[in-house]
Amino acid sequence: MFVVLLGPPGAGKGTQAERIAKATGLLHVSTGDMFREHVRNETELGQLAKSYMDKGELVPDEVTISMLNERISRDDASEGVMFDGFPRNVPQAKALDDALAERAKKIDRALLISARDEELVSRLSGRWICRQCGRLFHERFDPPAEAGKCDACGGELYQRDDDKADVVRTRLEKQKPAPELIDHYRQAGVLHEVDGERSIDEVTTALLEALR
Ligand code: AP5
Fold first, then answer.
1. Best of 83, 123, 204 to mutate for ligand 1, by most ligand atoms within 8 A of CB?
2. Which one, 20, 56, 137, 212, has least CB within 10 Å?
3. Atom of ligand 1 nearest to the CA of 128
4. What is the pLDDT of residue 207?
5. pLDDT above 90 as % of the chain
6. Could you tell me the CA-to-CA distances from 69 to 45, 98, 107 in Å, in that order?
7. For residue 6, what are the CA distances in angstroms to 85, 94, 166, 182, 194?
8. Is the C-alpha dihedral spanning 12, 13, 14, 18 positive or negative?
9. Which helix (H) or strand (E) element contains residue 205?
């Protein structure tokens, strides 16, 4: 099964993708995580991506699509993928459709997680991430047992540079799923919308239900 997870910044895509991947065995592919890994490794692509991410803007399509195509050409992506943060617009969606069609596959479900801006701002400003294993926490909604330390692996928790208030504002202006993107999947008959303002567990249950 090939699934895309859509939603504005902070809607819970990463949190839910991790849980759904565990429950279903789908491979979790996050373009945001891939860019952050390039930034950490100080690659040329990482430097380019950082110049956009720091401003809260999307990385250009040709760069993002080619990185994604390379990822899904690997063996571990042949049976099923949960795409998190890709596609962000219709050209990316069409590129993904084409890449899957070449392998006689298609998007089976597009899961849209929705939430209001004030909720998104409070989620992003309280988000903490494990430097070692990537587990996500929230200082109020999903706090670690010990402040600054990951429950899963004991790693150090950090906050993302692009979670600063001014960058969050730009991300919310420029990175919500466009109506045309949502229509692309509605017309394909695969769109399911889930209210992302419920608890993390309730959202997981609703998404897994939509995948049945
Ligand atoms: P990316 O990392 O994908 O950022 P994003 O889309 O802005 O999404 P986030 O990771 O910020 O939020 P999320 O929806 O995953 O929420 P999370 O689960 O963490 O991309 C980063 C950058 O890379 C982009 O800005 C862009 O520059 C570039 N990029 C990436 N993909 C691209 C593409 N396709 N094209 C071009 N450029 C691209 O949850 C947030 C917080 O809320 C956490 O603390 C969590 O614990 C908490 N939380 C989650 N769910 C709930 C709940 N139900 N109740 C209470 N708290 C909750």
1. 123
2. 212
3. 44
4. 98
5. 97
6. 15, 10, 15
7. 7, 15, 23, 8, 10
8. positive
9. helix 200-211
Residue that is written with structure tokens 């617009």 in the block: 89
Q: Tokens 């990175």 map to which residue?
A: 175
- The pTM (predicted TM-score) of the whole model is 0.94
Confidence at 179, pLDDT banded by 50, 70, 90: very high
Per the CB < 8 A criterion, the answer to whether 210 and 109 are in contact is yes
Dihedral sign of CA atoms 70, 113, 16, 191 in order: negative
Structural contact between residues 111 and 210, judged by C-beta atoms closer than 8 angstroms = yes
Distance 66 CA to ligand 1 centre (A): 21
Using the mean position of ligand 1's atoms as its centre, give its distance from the Cα of residue 211 in Å.
21
Question: What class is the 2-115+176-211 domain?
Answer: alpha beta
| In the chain, where the domains are located | 2-115+176-211
Q: Summarize pLDDT for 72-93 with one digit per residue, the tens.
A: 999 999 999 999 999 999 999 9
Average pLDDT over residues 143-164: 95
pLDDT at 21 over 90: yes
